[in-house]
Amino acid sequence: MSINPLKQYFRQAILYVKLPTQGRWYTSDDVTFSSEGEVGVYALTALDDILLNTPDAMLNGQALEKVISNCCPDVKNVKRLMLPDLEAIFVGIKSATNGGKADYDRKCPQCNHENSFELNCQHLLDSTMFINEDDLSINFGNDLIVHVKPYDFEMRQLFTKREFEEERSLRMFDEQNKDVDELTKATLLGQSVDRLSQMTFSLVSRSIEKIEMVKEKIIVDNRDHINEWLVGISKAQADMVIESVNRINGIGVPKTIPVLCSNCNHQWEDTLTFDPSSFFGKRS
Ligand SMILES: [Zn+2]
Hints:
Elements: E1 15-18, E2 38-41, H1 46-52, H2 55-59, H3 62-71, H4 83-97, E3 101-107, E4 114-120, H5 121-126, E5 137-140, E6 144-148, H6 153-176, H7 182-206, E7 208-213, E8 218-220, H8 223-232, H9 235-250, E9 256-260, E10 267-271, H10 276-279
Antiparallel strand pairs: 1-2, 3-4, 5-6, 6-7, 7-8, 9-10
Zinc ion (ZN) binds next to loops.
C-alpha cells in the first residue's frame, strides 16, 4: 500500500483525559497511557455519528466498541474498560466533538418550564473523582474483607441490553393488551423488576475480585465459591456489597449538578447521565 500524503491532515487528539481508575485494572495491552497518565481523545467522525444513531447497532456492543476505539485509540481493549473510565471517555469525546460543550434540556419540577443548559465538559472532567484503595474493600466485622471493582464495558452492555429488552416487552404488552387490568400490569412490572435485580446480583458477584478471610489468612478468588457465598448471606449483607459496587461505578465524572430555572428561579440538584445514545444527541 502506498503512503497516503493526506495522512498529516488526519484528525488528531483534541484533548487528554485522566481516567478515574488511573489504570488500576489494566495491562499495557488494554490501555496505553501517556507519561502524564492520560489518554488522547479525538472528535467523532461522520461514521461514528451514524453508528451512535443506529439503535440496533448500539444494542449489541460492537458499534459502541468501534466508536470508542476510533475516538480513543489509546484504548486497545474496549471490553476491559471500567465504567467510570468509560464515562470520562464519553465526556471527553463529547467535548472534542462539540467545542467543549454539551447541551441538555431539563423541565423545571416547580413550573414545568423547559430550560436549556450548556455543560462545560472540561469543567466536568476537571472535577473527576479518582478511585482510592479505600473504595475497594468492605469489612464484614473482623472476619471478612470483600474486595470489589467497578463494572466493565461488557457488564455495562449486558445490563443495558437486558434493561432495554425488559422495557420493550412491557411496552409491547401494553400496546397489545389495551384493556388489561392494573393488577396484571403491576404483576408483570414486578416480574420485570425481579429479573433486572437478578441480573444486578450476578453482575455484582462478578465485581467481587476476592474475599479475604482475616483470621484464617486465606484469600478466596474462586468464582463459584464467591457466588455461593453471595447467594447465601443475608439480604442486609448482600445490599452492602451491591451498594459498594454501585458506589464505585459512580465515582469519576460528577453525576449531579446544581441547576437554576430561568423562569421561576427554582434551584435543584440535577442528575447527569452519560448514556451514549442520548448523551451524544440525535442528528437533525
Ligand atoms: Zn421553574
